[in-house]
Write a structure and sequence with these properties.
Helices cover 36% and strands 24% of the residues. It has helices at 10-22, 29-34, 74-91, 111-128, 179-196, 211-218, 224-232, 246-257, 272-280, 285-291, 304-310; strands at residues 35-37, 45-46, 53-62, 95-105, 131-139, 145-154, 170-174, 236-242, 260-264, 297-302, 317-324, 330-333, 339-341. The longest helix has 18 residues, at 74-91. It is built from eleven helices and 13 strands. It is globular and about 65 Å long. The strands form three sheets. The protein has a seven-stranded mixed β-sheet with strand order 8-10-7-11-9-12-13, with helices on both faces. Strands 3-6-4-5 form a four-stranded mixed β-sheet. It is of the alpha+beta class and 352 residues long. 42% of the residues are buried.
């Protein structure tokens, strides 16, 4: 890749290049009709859709904490920074609308890298119908830092919170869990192999077998598809996205709802690639699902009656347990039948 130092074009030259990349149209015409001013002024101006309430969320990605530039491209970073926010909107039963992107960049980052970042971000925006309408770029004296803030919309009567679970409901998840951590472990292993190889120019990483897990880590997909079904076709209790690990998200729902839960280990959906990777590292696959992060799947609660309706609408939902009374605690039932408290765990900042 060509390496153009940002200093050769300056902040405003960089902004001009960014504007050309993000100035695209998406399939939803109301996004453009309601946007009165985008990047070209001091602030973006938009008109909220009639009859909707607004959702606000933000996520940060920090080099060395959330990503490693050894095996993470800027195009993947752009995609992931947008998707992490879309997943939060989906977990509330909303749709994404507009995003603002803030980049803090050290000297080592080139113009071409930033262009790739925005190409990845715009690709996610086009896929999930939202627009980048502004942001900021600054110099960083340390590592690369990315922050995205996003505005979404939802029907007020259809918004879903973490605090809506009631005893007796099923505890369900979308998709398969544990793949993101599995993919990350493979990437880290290949990085170590590269560092230990005498002839690094001839090094070939062993990645092809693990493509599905690596893609789940580098290019996750938010579950707007299932969120739409859950908010428009059935009535659910509580919902949250799985960004910090299944175990911690179960605890969040239980705390906010004032309930307990029983999670059945044998019901947790883990795909064959994740099982293979866990075996190579002598790990339990369900531990990846319980305590890994960055899945961007959905965890929600639903009654027996409503689940019978949902089951006819999608085959991508798995029952993993039940919501119980608070006094029963939050438990994990192992495959052998042993009961134990579900340890609060997963990714948590400031406990490095």
């Amino acid at each position: 890749m060509q390496h153009t130092d940002i200093s050769t074009i300056g902040e405003f030259g960089l902004i001009d290049r960014i504007r050309k990349i993000v100035d695209v149209r998406v399939d939803d015409p109301s996004l453009h009709d309601n946007l009165l001013m985008g990047i070209a002024d001091d602030a973006a101006v938009y008109r909220p859709s009639q009859g909707k309430v607004q959702l606000f969320t933000t996520d940060a990605l920090i080099e060395g904490i959330h990503f490693d530039l050894t095996f993470t491209s800027f195009m993947h970073l752009g995609w992931k920074s947008i998707v992490a926010n879309i997943s939060d909107i989906a977990a509330m039963g909303g749709i994404p609308r507009y995003a603002i992107v803030i980049l803090s960049l050290p000297k080592k980052i080139s113009v071409e890298m930033i262009e790739d970042f925005y190409r990845g971000a715009v690709s996610a925006c086009q896929k999930y119908s939202c627009l980048i309408v502004g942001g900021d770029t600054t110099t960083s004296m340390a590592n690369t830092m990315i922050s995205v803030a996003m505005i979404g919309e939802a029907d007020e009567q259809r918004i879903k919170y973490r605090g809506g679970a009631t005893a007796g409901e099923y505890l369900c998840v979308t998709g398969h869990l544990g793949s993101s951590l599995a993919g990350l472990k493979v990437l880290k292993r290949e990085k170590e192999r590269f560092a230990q190889t005498p002839d690094q120019h001839a090094f070939k990483p062993n990645l092809e077998t693990y493509t599905q897990a690596i893609e789940k880590h580098l290019k996750p997909k938010p579950r707007l598809d299932i969120s739409k079904i859950l908010t428009e076709r059935v009535n659910i209790g509580a919902m949250i996205d799985i960004s910090d690990g299944l175990a911690s998200e179960v605890h969040h729902i239980c705390k906010n709802s004032g309930v307990g839960a029983a999670v059945y280990e044998h019901n947790i959906p883990v795909d064959s690639i994740t099982q293979k990777i866990a075996g190579e590292f002598s790990d339990l696959p369900t531990e990846y699902a319980l305590y890994g992060g960055e899945e961007y799947e959905l965890l929600f609660t639903i009654s027996d009656e409503q689940y019978n309706i949902l089951d006819k609408l999608t085959n991508d939902v798995t029952i993993i347990g039940r919501i119980t009374d608070k006094n029963k605690g939050i438990g994990l039932i192992r495959e052998g039948g042993e009961h134990e408290p579900l340890r609060f765990g997963g990714w948590e900042h400031f406990k490095l």
